[in-house]
Amino acid sequence: MSRRVITDEIWNQIQQTMQFYGCYRSRNSKNIMEAILWKLRTGAPWRDVPEDLCPWQTAYNRFNRWANKGLLGEFVFKLRGVLDKEWVFIDGSYIRAHQHASGARHGEESTIGKSRGGATTKIHLAVDASGYPIDFEITGGEVHDSQVASQLIELVGEAEYLIADKGYDSENIWEVARNHHMIPIIPRKSNSKKVNVEFDHYLYGLRHLVENAFARLKHFRGIATRFEKLARNYKSMLFLACSFIWCKSK
What we know:
- This protein folds into 2 domains: 62 residues, no CATH class; 143 residues, 2-Layer Sandwich (Nucleotidyltransferase, domain 5), CATH 3.30.420.
- The chain contains 10 helices and 7 strands.
- Strands 1, 2, 3, 4, 5, 6 and 7 form a 7-stranded mixed β-sheet that branches.
- Strand 5, helix 6 and strand 6 form a beta-alpha-beta unit.
- The longest helix has 19 residues.
């Protein structure tokens, strides 16, 4: 008998969201969701999904259909609670791509790049003042954090403070943040001659919140190591992990 992780309270939240988006529902819907979460938690191949949950083809087809439609991203925006945007933290983290993640079909986006760690994907994450995920982007591992900062700020919208490490010290990032009415709390690089009067050591010391969020996401082995060939499928797994974190927070 496979271990279940979806409580009645969590399933009620998920089921209401599925109903809101008109997802197909069946008597086996909860077991199918358990099977998808089992795959996310273990990182095992789809073919190894326990038979007592549902046939593996059913779980894969349901997940793939949702990923193709972008529904799992919609799920997290519906399930997440009230965001505390007084402080917003951004950072990036490398994810090693398993050899099975290679070989995406021609024309399909993979977002797997080469870095010092080999074949990697990078998660660029924004979290709120409570350390819960707001949104994210994924790129190849060779993409520097600062190249995605503007996109993250656009996804966040508005906040009072934007806290990031010195890798984000760029005049363009500072300008984008201020255009969104954010006060950047970013240390200057060692060779910078500009005065950083807005820097707040206390807020910068809270950057562990975004690191904690990455640690929580990487409890899911399907996130800690990338097994998905397609970018949209890995991104959907990330959205599902974020949704589960939000559900457990309520």
